[in-house]
Every structure is written in structure tokens, then in C-alpha cells.
Design a protein that fits this description.
The chain has 16 helices and two strands. It is mainly α. A hairpin with a 2-residue loop joins strand 1 and strand 2. The structure holds geranylgeranyl diphosphate.
Length: 300
């Protein structure tokens, strides 16, 4: 059955089209920004490429819930803005202190720490503007729920909380439970928000939202496990960011706790469970099923 769905769905074509529409929307989402230095810094990171997995998940969930993905574009852009600002801040000297991101020098290396912080702040606030003021054709009652999801994911219950525990755990012995907390908050929470917000735009029923949360929990954790594996096995050139960083920063990772092969198996099991959650939606879930597989098979 699943094989049949896979065969009739052209994932690379889907990915290419979704990515192209996101790139256009991202380009149009910025402006007018004054002064020019801020505009340059915001554009530098937002338009630097990247897999665009988060906005694509949002569009796919919107479609699964029966909506027109076009209506979810501003929210998809908002999610990529939050992701990008988190990368800018994560790379700062006071955080992960990195100088390579998406294949180019990090934002603060080009614009300085102060402008990098402010460009991140401006992207974060623009994200809320995208949803509340730049989302035509979506009822306000749905948009307010999306704003709620975004405020949870960007704040202490989401990325910020995960980042603090991550920073405080560096150089310390971390158990699997704490590692899972970090991953679910730093990485999983935003992936969850992507599918939930996409579905909310379409006015999804509770049973679909519940299934999407299960799906997102699985792919969120799997995504970060693969990220940990790639940090050990891939090169900086392919990743577009500094490889081997976790070891250098003395971070606890899945490969460190479980070994490479066990970590891979765990990621695959999580993806399989994630896909299972969407089974009742059959063919309509093909894009989300393929995106889940893409997470474990990716090389960057
Ligand atoms: C959100 C207010 C607010 C603050 C941010 C710095 C911080 C707080 C959180 C750190 C979050 C972080 C950087 C998590 C890592 C997530 C991760 C695995 C990123 C890599 O994602 P990819 O591989 O990257 O999808 P591309 O470049 O393809 O988009």
C-alpha cells in the first residue's frame, strides 16, 4: 500500500516546486527595511539557501488538511524567518560561536555582532507581521491560533528553553532524557509548529492535529539524530556549516550516547512511527510521508 503511494508520487518534482514558490515568497517578504545595513543583514541570511524543510512541511500540512497551500505561504515564510533568526543567534560568539552557515560566513562575521542580533530580532518580529498583517484570505480566528503557536515555539517553552538547556549542558555528562528534552525543544518544536500551523490555516479538525503532533514528534527527533550523525560523518563543504562541531564543543549527542549505527536505527524507527500516525489519511499524506523519509536519507 505504502509502496503504491510512493510510486505514484513524484517527490523530487514536489520538492522543487514547493522550494521555488518559497524562495519567491521569501524574497518578496522583506522590505521596506531601513536602514540599508539592516536590510542587507536580514536578506543575507534569509536568502542564503537552505533546505527550506520547515516552510515545505507547513505547505504540505495545509494541503493535507484540505486547504489551498497558497494561503499558508505567509505563515510558511514566517516559520523560515524564525528558523533563520535562530541560526543567526545560535552562531553568535556568545552561543555556538560559528563562522560558517549555509555555505557562507555567518551573519555576525559579515555585519558584526550588534547588527546580527538586530537582524535576528527584525526577522522574528517580521514573522509575526507575516501572519497577522500579511495573510490575506485566512480568517482572523485561524490566524490568532497560528500566532499563539508561533509565540510558544519561539519562546521559553520552545527554542529559547531548548537553547538554554543545551548551552548549560556543554562539557557536562548528559543523560538520554535531557538530550531528548534539548532536541525536542531546539529542533522538534519548530518542526511541530510547521505542520500544526499549516493545518490550522486550513481549519483542521482535532483528530488531524493530534496525528500531526505525533508525526512531528517522530520526525523532529529523527531530524536532530541525523543532524548529530552528519556532524560526525559529513564534511563542512557538504553541510555548509562547520562539521565536527559537537565534539569540539564537548556536546552530548546521540552518536556519543548510542553509537552511529544504533542512532541511525533509532532515527529510522522514529520516522516509521511518524508515518504510521498519518496512515488514516492515505494518499493525501504522500508529501508528508516522503518528507519524513527525506529526513533520514538526507546527506546535509
Ligand atoms: C527563537 C527567540 C528565538 C531565539 C533563538 C539560538 C536559539 C534561540 C535557538 C537555537 C535553535 C537551533 C539553532 C537549533 C538547531 C536546529 C537545526 C538542526 C538547524 C539546522 O536546520 P537545517 O538542517 O538547516 O534544516 P537549513 O540551513 O537547511 O535550513
Amino acid at each position: 500500500m505504502e509502496q503504491a503511494i510512493k510510486n505514484s508520487f513524484d517527490f523530487s518534482n514536489y520538492l522543487e516546486k514547493a522550494k521555488a514558490s518559497i524562495e519567491i515568497a521569501l524574497d518578496e517578504s522583506l522590505g521596506p527595511e531601513e536602514p540599508e545595513e539592516l536590510r542587507k543583514a536580514m536578506r543575507y541570511s534569509l536568502l542564503a539557501g537552505g533546505k527550506r524543510l520547515r516552510p515545505i512541511l507547513c505547505l504540505a500540512a495545509c494541503e493535507l488538511a484540505g486547504g489551498d497551500p497558497q494561503n499558508a505561504i505567509p505563515t510558511a515564510v514566517a516559520l523560515e524567518m524564525i528558523h533563520t533568526m535562530s541560526l543567526i543567534h545560535d552562531d553568535l560568539p556568545s552561543m555556538d560561536n560559528d563562522d560558517l552557515r549555509r555555505g557562507r560566513p555567518t551573519n555576525h562575521k559579515v555585519f558584526g555582532d550588534a547588527v546580527a542580533i538586530l537582524a535576528g530580532d527584525a526577522l522574528l518580529t517580521r514573522a509575526f507581521e507575516m501572519v497577522s498583517l500579511r495573510s490575506p484570505n485566512v480568517p482572523a480566528s485561524r490566524l490568532i491560533k497560528v500566532v499563539g503557536e508561533l509565540s510558544l515555539v519561539a519562546g521559553a517553552p520552545g527554542l529559547v528553553g531548548g537553547q538554554v538547556v543545551d548551552l548549560k549542558s556543554e562539557g557536562k555528562k548528559v543523560d538520554l532524557e535531557t538530550l531528548e528534552f534539548i532536541h525536542l525543544h531546539k529542533t522538534g518544536a519548530l518542526l511541530n509548529a510547521c505542520v500544526i500551523c499549516g493545518a490550522l490555516i486550513s481549519g483542521a479538525e482535532d483528530n488531524l492535529l493530534h496525528a500531526l503532533r505525533k508525526y512531528a514528534k517522530g520526525i523532529g527527533l529523527a531530524f536532530q539524530i541525523i543532524d548529530d550523525i552528519l556532524d560526525v560523518t559529513a564534511s563542512s563543504e557538504v553541510l555548509g556549516k562547520t562539521a565536527g562541531k559537537d565534539l569540539l564543543a564537548d556536546k552530548t549527542t546521540y552518536p556519543k550516547l548510542l553509537g552511529l549505527s544504533e542512532s541511525k536505527k533509532r532515527a529510522e524507527a522514529l520516522v516509521s512511527d511518524a508515518k504510521e500516525a498519518l496512515k488514516p489519511w492515505g494518499k493525501a499524506s504522500a508529501p508528508l510521508l516522503a518528507l519524513a523519509d527525506y529526513i533520514t536519507k538526507r546527506d546535509r
